[in-house]
């Protein structure tokens, strides 16, 4: 009886692979295939036959897939020991091809930053991913590559800096893997207003990711900060406290308190119910830049941080 139940469970299991840039696809697996979590399989994709590691999909993801229906990919076969030996050799060839392509581009004085080179398993096609600040005429480079990699299809793909980071992977300042490497598939618009409204210093080390663009996670809790802000007096407003008249110097969204600069120059923290807003101008000077701990020497061109043009191309 137990064996029958285990057999049923195995048949209902669903497997997936993570293709480049955090795109997960379910696998078409033959009923007699003995695939296990963590194995490497050869899969047919739009680029050809590629090698991927298999993931066992839990029931919650399966329910989501029932609604979104991502495109399933066919398993050619489970990788054998001989296949894995060839795959290890392929990865070394990819590194060599990466540097060769980069050197050829430099000789042509092309402004291209190469991210990765990927062969199909049959080595009939190689894809070079690169970023560039503007459109590149790589026709001469393509001729060079054709001479260098004979009988191999060459694919040069321009990607954005956010795409580059999701391909290379890594950990953010939070200590977790980049969101774009785990679950984030679509990049939303991010601007410095999100950081300002949350009281985050407008300095590169605080608000930018490895891609050089504003942190995607600035969007995550923004609505919560707005909801709290509606219940507290804004920075610069006059208030009456138990210690006298003052002006709101800083808002602490997480603690739901405000710091108030009093007439004697002292700064004290108050709960919402400990202050009362007053009409009219309060003659107390505050420096908004200082209360947010701005560091002028670290501030870069804000437009460069907010420039999301072509930061994600979807050309992966």
Account of the 3D structure:
The chain is 31% helix and 25% strand. It is α+β, with helices and mostly antiparallel strands and 316 residues long. The protein folds into four domains: 13-79, no CATH class; 84-159, GMP Synthetase, Chain A, domain 3; 164-224 and 296-306, no CATH class; 236-285, SH3 type barrels (Roll), CATH 2.30.30. The protein has a five-stranded mixed β-barrel with strand order 1-2-5-3-4. Strands 12-11-10-9-13 form a five-stranded antiparallel sheet, with no helix packed on it. β6 and β7 form a beta hairpin. The radius of gyration is 27 Å and the shape is elongated.
What share of residues is helical? 25-40%
Can you tell me the CATH architecture of the largest domain?
Answer: 2-Layer Sandwich
- Summarize model confidence as the mean pLDDT: 84
Please give the domain count: 4
- What's the count of strands? 13
Fraction of residues in β-strands: 25-35%
Number of helices: 11
Specify the structural class. alpha+beta
CATH classification class of the largest domain: Alpha Beta
- Write the CATH fold name of the largest domain: GMP Synthetase, Chain A, domain 3
Radius of gyration: 27 Å
Write a concise keyword list for the protein shown above.
316 residues, alpha+beta, GMP Synthetase, Chain A, domain 3, five-stranded antiparallel sheet, 11 helices
């Amino acid at each position: 009886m137990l064996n029958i139940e285990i057999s049923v469970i195995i048949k209902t299991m669903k497997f997936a692979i993570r293709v480049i840039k955090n795109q997960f696809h379910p696998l078409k697996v033959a009923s007699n295939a003995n695939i296990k979590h963590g194995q490497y399989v050869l899969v047919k994709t739009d680029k050809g036959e590629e090698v991927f590691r298999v993931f066992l999909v839990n029931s919650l993801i399966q329910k989501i897939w029932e609604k979104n229906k991502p495109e399933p990919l066919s398993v050619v076969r489970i990788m054998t020991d001989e296949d894995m030996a060839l795959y290890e050799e392929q990865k070394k060839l990819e590194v060599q091809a990466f540097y060769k392509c980069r050197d050829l581009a430099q000789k042509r004085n092309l402004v291209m930053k190469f991210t990765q080179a990927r062969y199909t398993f049959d080595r009939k096609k190689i894809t070079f991913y690169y970023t560039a600040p503007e459109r590149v005429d790589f026709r001469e480079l393509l001729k060079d590559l054709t001479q260098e990699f004979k009988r191999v299809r060459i694919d040069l793909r321009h990607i954005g800096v956010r795409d580059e980071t999701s391909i290379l992977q890594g950990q953010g300042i939070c200590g977790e893997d980049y969101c774009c490497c785990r679950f984030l598939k679509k990049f939303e618009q991010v601007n410095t207003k999100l950081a300002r409204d949350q009281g985050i210093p407008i300095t590169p080390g605080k608000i930018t990711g490895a891609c050089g663009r504003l942190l995607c996670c600035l969007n995550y809790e923004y609505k919560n900060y707005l909801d709290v802000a509606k219940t507290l007096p804004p920075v610069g407003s006059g208030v009456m406290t138990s210690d006298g008249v003052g002006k709101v110097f800083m808002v602490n969204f997480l603690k739901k308190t405000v710091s108030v600069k009093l007439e004697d120059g002292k700064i004290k923290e108050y709960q919402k119910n400990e202050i009362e807003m007053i009409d009219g101008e309060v003659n107390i000077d505050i420096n908004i830049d200082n209360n947010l701990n701005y560091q002028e020497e670290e501030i870069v061109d804000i437009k460069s941080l907010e420039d999301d043009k072509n930061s994600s191309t979807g050309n992966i």
